[in-house]
């Protein structure tokens, strides 16, 4: 009983840890490394916008924290269940199942909604940017497209 309680408490902590790993896609957030760096800014007009799903990715690299934490938790649980030679098999099976479950959980916790904006720049070119839903822009609205020095773009209302 005590092992199960500790395991469940640990899994709760893992979920909070993983949830904090989601990338901030807000148009109002800046990475501290970009402060003081010049950005290229282009004026334009929103020609289309649509709601999109922003996922954490499908590679193992994208979900390594969840996979690792899940493997540890699954291994501990498997070790508590098995006995004798079966303990080794239960531990390995628990670690594998936990890794898969942890990676899946991390992917779900990192999923966000965003808006895809297509902007026709005043120079005639078109750019598409996906960003968070904290600021809503509409077709026909004058905007500024900002490309920062780290390769992140954002669209903001022109003042």
Question: Which helices and strands appear, and what pairs or packs with what?
Answer:
Blueprint: H1 2-19, E1 40-54, H2 64-81, H3 85-110, E2 112-121, E3 126-131, E4 142-147, E5 153-157
Antiparallel strand pairs: 1-2, 1-4, 2-3, 4-5
Helix pairs in contact: 1-2, 2-3
Task: Give a nutshell description of this structure.
The protein is an alpha+beta fold and 159 residues long.
Describe the protein in words:
- The chain is built from three helices and five strands.
- Helix 1 (2-19) runs antiparallel to helix 2.
- It has 159 residues and is of the alpha+beta class.
- It is elongated and about 70 Å long.
- The N and C termini lie far apart (61 Å).
């Amino acid at each position: 009983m005590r092992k199960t309680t500790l395991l469940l408490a640990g899994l709760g902590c893992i979920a909070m840890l993983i949830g904090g790993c989601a990338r901030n896609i807000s148009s109002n957030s800046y990475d501290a490394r970009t402060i003081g760096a010049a950005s290229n800014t282009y004026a334009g007009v929103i020609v289309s916008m649509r709601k999109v799903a922003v996922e954490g990715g499908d590679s193992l690299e994208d979900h390594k924290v969840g996979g690792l934490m899940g493997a540890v938790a699954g291994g501990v649980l498997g070790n508590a269940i098995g006995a004798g030679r079966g303990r080794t098999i239960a531990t390995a099976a628990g670690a594998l199942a936990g890794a898969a479950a942890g990676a899946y959980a991390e992917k779900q916790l990192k999923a966000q909604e965003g808006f895809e904006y297509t902007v026709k720049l005043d120079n005639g070119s078109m750019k598409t940017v996906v960003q968070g839903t904290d600021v809503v822009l509409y077709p026909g609205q004058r905007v500024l497209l900002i490309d920062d020095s780290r390769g992140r773009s954002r669209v903001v209302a022109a003042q």
